[in-house]
Amino acid sequence: MKRHVAGAVSIAAMCLVAPQALGSDVLQTIDYGPTLTSPTMYASVFVGFTAPTTISGQYYGSSTIELDAGWGFAGGVAVGTNITSNLRGEFELSFTHRNIDDDDFIPQWECAPGDCTATGSLSTIYMLGNVWWDFDMGGGFSPYVGGGVGAAWVMPDITIYDDPDYKWDVAGLAPAAQLGLGVRYDFSDNMKLDLGYRAKAVLGANFSDSTDPCNNPGNGACAADDIMYVEHVLQAGLTLEF
Length: 242
Fold this sequence. Notes:
The chain is mainly beta.
């Protein structure tokens, strides 16, 4: 009788221990994928320069302006978060400034030399929501591509016809968008160097004269509508993760 009881106890113990050991082995072989972590916040600051571009729009309702804009500079900040291991979302506040020096901003009028000049400057503040996709190449390097949409505060300070009475100097809001690419390099646990290119587009701004409207001939510049331009920016920045 005692031998039967001892045997039953041994069998029961084996039944209890064996599944636990087997279960442990099975659990160790299951691949659950990468460990999920909390989203990482980051802040960036960047500076760069803008290449020459052409500003187009409508003047007097039917005439097309082609305003040559020269070299300029850019700068800005961004705050964002890592949505996934490869996807980032951020808010950007950036600024560009460039000089304007064009000896004929309305080519279709065939103006005499010096009659259709445009000189001054153009500044733009961008407020954009961006999304970037990172490609982890190893070795600390992460190329990325993406873009964003938002608005631009356009601030012209442009004198036309070489006459201070004719000036576009009224700031206004316009839709804006950008596309970009670049590469980030991890040079410490929470800091990255960012080198990138941005194509920032202003879509449908207006240039107007703050002193006199177009319907006072000889005293004010007519407004230019549907102003569009793309700024090509090369920039370098630092990103701090926290």
